[in-house]
Write a structure and sequence with these properties.
It contains no helices and 9 strands. With about 90 residues, the chain is mainly beta. The chain has a single domain, classed as Jelly Rolls, CATH 2.60.120.10. The chain has a 5-stranded antiparallel sheet, with no helix packed on it. A 4-stranded antiparallel sheet has the order 3-8-5-6, with no helix packed on it. β1 and β2 form a beta hairpin.
Length: about 90
């Protein structure tokens, strides 16, 4: 699910251990930060990074925690997990 306005965008997804997923296009008119949250019900970790991200190279986000990236630039983020069916949410302002 994706909601869009001129101020923010939000979305959710599920990722597993075998395949990295690119977060949807995050470009909007006003950008201050990107927040990525690993759902509290996850049994594993979510990892964020560039294309080719793995659990060995990504930034680890434990279940229930949020990563905030301050930026004013369009960036491509990829996500992978340490176990199957790990859920995440993202929010761009």
């Amino acid at each position: 699910m994706l909601e869009t306005s001129k101020q923010f965008r939000v979305g959710q997804g599920t990722v597993g251990a075998s395949t990295q997923v690119m977060l949807p296009e995050l470009g909007i008119e006003v950008r201050r930060a990107i927040l990525i949250c690993a759902h509290g019900t996850n049994t594993g970790y979510v990892y964020i990074g560039r294309i080719g991200v793995t659990i060995a190279t990504g930034f680890q986000i434990p279940a229930g925690k949020t990563l905030r990236l301050e930026t004013n630039d369009a960036i491509a983020l990829y996500i992978v997990a340490s176990a199957a069916d790990q859920k995440y949410s993202w929010f761009v302002v």
